[in-house]
Every structure is written in structure tokens, then in C-alpha cells.
Amino acid sequence: MSTITLTTWSLEMTSPADLVPAAPAGPEISVVRSEVPSPEFSRFLYASVGGDIHWTDRLSLTRAQWVEQLDRPGVETWVAYDRGTPAGYVELDPQDDGVVEIMYFGLLPDFRGRRIGGHLLTVGVERAWDLASRWPQREATRRVWVHTCSQDGPTAMANYQRRGFKVFKTETEQKEETPTPGPWPGA
Q1: Which residues contact 88 (CB under 8 A, 6 or more apart)?
Q2: Where are the beta strands (DSSP E) in the chain?
Q3: Taking the model in full, what pTM does it have?
Q4: 82 by DSSP, 3-state: which?
Q5: InterPro entries this protein is in (predicted)?
């Protein structure tokens, strides 16, 4: 196998005022919190959004491991819908000291390039900043961060920066090149 150079950027916001909202995506787009943790639905979103951009870290998780990931206090999944069809999602993962990571964010391939991503990211960041209002046992959010890499979609980094995220760390490594897994085995 050949190797590739993989660059990973970590970006952050340290104030809600850092957010530069995107324009709404249109009246046919809604963003709704998936309030009942569902490993099957979350795995569908993960595999469907990340299948063509090398998301593989959760593919081997058992159902019990998915439940463990999703059932922690403050973990939230916000889903963008286009007239009732899932178009993408953002998963928020609260950490210690008022930090919230945007653990996963993206759109299913057929919904990319339609101005949904900026709107979904805006909603996700707003929900990260007000997470403690829904989870009173959590500290108020002081920092929101995300990471992206050179294998993510071609507009991912620009979307994060347009919303107001600033790079705080860059890492580069050589990695074995692997095929994308697709949304399901053999796809």
C-alpha cells in the first residue's frame, strides 16, 4: 500500500460572539435534536455521512459501545432534514471544564453543495454554546472545538473558518492509504 500525508487541524471558538452565522438554508430544511439516543440511527448517520471521506473509527463498534457513546449526559445529535429526509448531522460531546467538542459534523453526499452545511454548523455551534441550559448538571460552555483533516470534504475547513473557528493546532503524519468504506460494506 502507498502512504499519504494526512493533515489534521484543530479549531476553536472561545466565545459565543465568535460565531458568524450562515444564512438559513431555506424553508424546506429543518434541524431537530434527536432526543432519544438511537445507536442504529446514529450509525446510519455516521456511515452515510462519512462513508466517502474515510470515517472508520466507529464502524467496528458494537451496539453496546454505540449506546455507551450516545448515552452520556450532554451528548446530543442534531439532524438536518430536507422535507423529512435526513440530510446531515452534528454530534456534540461535552467534556470537562465547560468544553464542548463537535465530535462529528457533515452531510450525506446528495445534500452537499446546497448551502445546508453552513446552516447546520451554525445551529450546532449555537447548541454547543447553550448546552448547559438543557443539561443543568453540565458547566456552562466556555469553549467549542472541532477537528477536521485533509481527507474531509473539500469545503469543510472553509465552512469552519467562515463560521468563526480559529486554528489552534496543526498536525501532519504519514498514513497508509486506504479505500473509503462507503456507507455500508461493499458499497
Answers
A1: 45, 49, 79, 80, 105, 106, 107, 108, 111, 116, 117, 120
A2: 3-13, 29-33, 76-82, 85-94, 99-107, 143-149, 166-176
A3: 0.94
A4: strand
A5: Acyl_CoA_acyltransferase, GNAT_dom
